């Protein structure tokens, strides 16, 4: 617990994890929670938008390929609701175009799936730092 | 392959043969038909023409001769009627009349004589000493006294020279008297001799016993007597009309075919016969036949030559098109195969990604939890950690595979830049040098100076070279060797050759090395996608990826990338 709690002294990062792959969201949220990050789960684009209505988040990890809504559409909605929200996109396959489009629409960064937890955590940290800087 | 070639060889040979046959048949049949029909029609027409000509010739001459005889007869009758016996008995007067006739008609009349009923010549004018000659036993005299006038056949007579006689009978108080004239045989013969055509055409006159009445110009090769049957045939059938000319074609004793044209003279007493060798009469036809035949054979030769050349050209063209089509269809099949396999792979890869991600995360979670739990048996703990690590390692491997599959299906990061190819390659060589050292492989580079920039995707090109370099090092893994990367320019392509000195690729595998999932590496070592991805990438760039391999000496991959990429910059 000690080795990955860089932000012990401050408020925990509020993270929204959006993916329609429930098992993946569940296990990832468990692991991330252990690293002192506040994780909320959303299993669809609609759930993510609902979650953002009720609560403010620092960082969102968003899968671009979901059943109900196109990840890019969700990204647009999230950015409208909270322009300061730092979004990290998870792209299922190496579709550089989608990632490039996402970045243009204001996403902070992207990762290809499956990804290393360490890599994801690093991105979350820097996204959080970026958001704090902007405030 | 050899069997295939044999088959196509056979196919082209029979195609060649068929074309030749068709051309020859289609051209030769009309040629022969037209030539022979025209020749046949010409032959018939020509025969008609020749026969008509002969008919005309013989007829006009027959009339001519008849006219000649009639004229002579009229002269004598006139003389007989106008002068009377009393005057004509007087030899000087007779001589005077002969001279007058000879003056008017040339030497046609040889002599004149007055013969009484007893056959005694009572007056004579002429070059022979025939005064008081007795003709009572002469055949002509016996015939002459039976009618008013008479023209005899040719005979020798008392003078011993061939001649014939015109006799006119007149009456006096107590009986009859005859005026007789001899016609010059030589002059008469010339009338017939003038009928001459070609080399062998000649004419003569026969009496009704088949005896010659004129001397034909006999040539050693011409045998009248042997052809006698034909004359008797003519003579056997009396003419229906005086102007009728009969024509017959018959072989003579020397087996030569002759044309005979005959017409009766002198009220059917004499027969004018014209005779000519068929070959001679139709000499022009023969010439025409030779010319036609020569032309036809020249035409045939031309057709045959044309048939051979044309069919060879057609077959060559067909063979070339066939070959091109085969190459094309091979390429199309390859591309199609790559596309369908690519789609399938992308689908699988995408489906597998999520479960793998979950498995890896679950293993990670177990690892996280392990940090909190203290195991009693440290040995088991080590095993657990090892197992978790193994799951993560294998998960990563899955990820690599799916990434490769996906990049095979949709080439990742395909943005196109101006690539400094030299820098890129040097980087790659540096990256690979560590691995190469372990495998005792020496990497040599031989680039041309001032390598041009290429408008391609950096990552794709990197992928291609990385793959080829890795393959080359793998190929020399056991004994080491030399890896050479060289470049040269060929037409509009920049060509890179990546050569190794490894064991080479067996010929059986050469066709398949660009197929997806084809690998000779042990299970788990290679996916069989590397080269097919490279192939796809280079094809997309508009270039070519080729392989040359000799068992035992090594393999060379040739990468040709087009230089002018301005036109097809973005894809």
Defining key terms:
heterodimer; A: 135 residues; alpha/beta; Rossmann fold; five-stranded parallel β-sheet; 5 helices; 5 strands; 44% helix; globular; disordered N terminus; B: 571 residues; alpha+beta; Beta-Lactamase; Heat Shock Protein 90; five-stranded antiparallel β-sheet; five-stranded mixed β-sheet; 12 helices; 16 strands; 53% helix; rod-shaped; disordered C terminus
Protein described:
The complex is a heterodimer of chains A (135) and B (571). Chain A is α/β, with parallel strands linked by helices and 135 residues long. In chain A, α2 runs parallel beside α3. Chain A has a five-stranded parallel beta sheet with strand order 2-1-3-4-5, sandwiched between helices. Chain A is globular, with a radius of gyration of 14 Å. Chain A has a single domain (3-133), classed as Response regulator (Rossmann fold, 3-Layer(aba) Sandwich), CATH 3.40.50.2300. Chain A has helices at 22-33, 45-54, 71-81, 96-104, 117-134; strands at 13-18, 37-42, 59-63, 86-91, 109-112. Chain B is α+β, with helices and mostly antiparallel strands and 571 residues long. Among the domains of chain B are: 20-186, Beta-Lactamase (2-Layer Sandwich), CATH 3.30.450.20; 413-562, Heat Shock Protein 90. In chain B, strands 2-1-5-4-3 form a five-stranded antiparallel beta sheet. Chain B has a five-stranded mixed beta sheet with strand order 11-13-14-16-15. A four-stranded antiparallel beta sheet of chain B has the order 6-9-8-7, with helices on both faces. In chain B, α1 (2-88) packs antiparallel against α7 and α8 (378-409) packs parallel to α12. The longest helix of chain B has 88 residues, at 283-370. Chain B starts with a helix and ends in a 9-residue tail after the last strand. At the A-B interface, α1 of A face α7 and α8 of B.
């Amino acid at each position: 617990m000690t080795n990955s709690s860089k932000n012990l002294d401050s408020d925990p990062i509020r993270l929204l994890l959006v993916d329609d792959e429930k098992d993946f969201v569940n296990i990832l949220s468990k692991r991330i929670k252990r690293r002192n990050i506040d994780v909320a789960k959303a299993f669809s684009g609609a759930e993510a938008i609902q979650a953002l209505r009720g609560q403010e988040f620092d960082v969102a990890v968003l899968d671009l390929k979901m059943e109900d809504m196109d990840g890019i559409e969700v990204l647009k909605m999230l950015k409208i609701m909270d322009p300061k929200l730092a979004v990290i996109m998870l792209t299922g396959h190496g579709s550089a175009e989608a990632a490039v489009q996402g970045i243009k629409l204001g996403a902070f960064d992207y990762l290809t799936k499956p990804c290393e937890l360490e890599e994801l955590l690093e991105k979350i940290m820097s996204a959080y730092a970026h958001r704090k800087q902007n405030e | 392959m050899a069997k295939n070639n044999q088959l196509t060889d056979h196919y082209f040979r029979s195609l060649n043969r068929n074309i030749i046959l068709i051309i020859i048949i289609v051209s030769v049949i009309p040629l022969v038909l037209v030539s022979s029909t025209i020749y046949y029609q010409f032959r018939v027409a020509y025969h008609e023409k020749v026969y008509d000509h002969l008919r005309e010739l013989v007829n006009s001459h027959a009339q001519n001769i008849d006219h000649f005889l009639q004229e002579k007869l009229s002269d004598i009758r006139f003389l007989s009627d106008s002068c009377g016996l009393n005057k004509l008995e007087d030899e000087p007067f007779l001589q005077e009349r002969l001279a007058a006739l000879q003056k008017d008609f040339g030497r046609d009349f040889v002599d004149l004589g007055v013969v009484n009923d007893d056959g005694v010549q009572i007056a004579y004018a002429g070059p022979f000493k025939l005064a008081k000659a007795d003709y009572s036993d002469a055949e002509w005299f016996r015939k002459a006294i039976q009618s008013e006038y008479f023209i005899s056949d040719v005979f020798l007579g008392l003078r011993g020279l061939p001649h014939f006689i015109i006799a006119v009978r007149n009456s006096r108080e107590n009986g009859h008297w005859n005026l007789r004239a001899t016609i010059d045989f030589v002059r008469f013969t010339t009338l017939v001799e003038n009928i001459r055509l070609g080399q062998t055409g000649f004419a003569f006159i026969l009496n009704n016993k088949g005896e010659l009445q004129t001397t034909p110009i006999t040539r050693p090769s011409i045998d009248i007597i042997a052809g006698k049957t034909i004359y008797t045939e003519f003579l056997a059938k009396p003419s229906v009309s005086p102007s009728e000319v009969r024509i017959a074609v018959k072989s003579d004793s020397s087996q030569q075919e002759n044309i005979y044209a005959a017409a009766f003279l002198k009220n059917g007493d004499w027969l004018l016969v014209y005779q000519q060798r068929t070959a001679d009469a139709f000499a022009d036809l023969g010439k025409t036949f030779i010319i036609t035949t020569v032309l036809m054979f020249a035409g045939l030769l031309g057709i045959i030559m044309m048939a051979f050349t044309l069919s060879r050209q057609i077959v060559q063209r067909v063979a070339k098109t066939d070959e091109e089509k085969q190459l094309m269809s091979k390429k199309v099949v390859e591309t199609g195969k790559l596309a369908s396999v690519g789609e399938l792979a992308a689908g699988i890869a995408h489906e597998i990604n999520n479960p793998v991600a979950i498995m890896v995360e679950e293993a990670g979670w177990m690892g996280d939890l392990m940090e909190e739990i203290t195991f009693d048996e440290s040995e088991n703990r080590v095993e657990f950690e090892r197992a978790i690590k193994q799951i993560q390692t294998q998960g990563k491997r899955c990820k690599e595979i799916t990434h490769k599959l996906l990049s095979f299906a949709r080439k990742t990061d395909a943005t196109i830049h101006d690539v400094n190819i030299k820098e890129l390659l040097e980087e790659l060589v540096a990256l690979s040098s560590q691995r190469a050292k372990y495998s005792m492989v020496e990497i040599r580079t031989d680039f041309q100076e001032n390598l041009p920039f290429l408008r391609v995707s950096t990552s794709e090109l990197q992928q291609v070279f990385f793959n080829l370099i890795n393959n080359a090092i793998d190929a020399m893994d056991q004994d080491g060797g030399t890896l050479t990367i060289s470049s040269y320019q060929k037409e509009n392509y920049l060509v890179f050759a990546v050569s190794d000195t490894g064991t080479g690729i067996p010929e059986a595998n050469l066709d398949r090395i660009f197929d997806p999932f084809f690998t000779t590496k042990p299970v788990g070592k290679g996916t069989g996608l590397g080269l097919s991805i490279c192939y796809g990438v280079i094809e997309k760039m508009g270039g070519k990826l080729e392989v040359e391999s000799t068992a035992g000496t090594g393999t060379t991959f040739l990468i040709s990338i087009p230089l002018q990429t301005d036109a097809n910059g973005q894809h």
